[in-house]
Write the structure tokens for this entry.
Amino acid sequence: MKVEDGKRVSVEYTLRLDDQSVVESNVGKPPLQYTHGSHEIIPGLEQALSGLAVGDAQQVNVAPEDAYGPVNPEAFHEIDKSRVPEGAHKVGAQLVARDQEGHERRLRVHEVRDETVVVDLNHPLAGKTLIFDVKVLAVE
């Protein structure tokens, strides 16, 4: 059976970046399961899996435009240091903010200045080419 729209697909994968650093892997863990064509995974990976069969394995390079998009310069915001917990006054610190409706949004500290902190609301993988080593385990 081949991967096609509406099929429930199980995959094993390792996700790396251009520098070969491993971002995530489910090898030896439960598979990633998704319904093909339902936009549950990034578009570039879903497109690459179309037509594969159980047991097929391949390396997939996904450009930022087909993953988490390019880095959006408008997603950087400078806020007063007093609005950021002291323990997060360091580059790379990750925070969760809530908007007025109570929706959560993840952000990272991009820069720490004397009186302010610059936060980045882009997805951590925005602007990056993603390299997946993927194997189709099941198609139902």
